[in-house]
User: Fold this.
Amino acid sequence: MICDGCGANVPDVPELRADHLYVGAAAGCWSAYTELIGRQMADRSLGEGRMLGVDIYMSQHPGVPGRQSSQSVWVHLVGLYLSLEHGYDGAASARAKARVAAPDAEFTWLEPPRPLGRLTVLDVLAAESPDESRRLVHEWADSVWQAWAPHHEAIRLRAASILARG
Ligand SMILES: [Zn+2]
Assistant:
């Protein structure tokens, strides 16, 4: 079946379908992503890719409009932006994202452009070495971030307003 988020052709995994309520991903795609996380946790040299991978994956699988999905898309797109355009590492990005997700924050739904990136988690899983995996995570990140270009300005403004509050 084709994943609604990233467009990857993945096997159906019925027993996983209810596990990820607000992620707009096919169960087989989610399963591939958890496999990638497992590999990234097993090899410390892939740790930064794991942090970035969360932002990439969630940005590529926005799901349907709703409070939780809207917030998730905003938070993870700000994370992608800060990592790619400001060189934030995982820890700095996590601190900034926690501030985006403040309890009083409002999140309008960002209509996802289509397609949402040229690469998918399956491309990264096909890597044959840690070096290749790191390179593919960055290509995957760039492709998803570029796909969201119609909303770049809104995301930059939101990030700037949060960072300006000190
Ligand atoms: Zn997918």
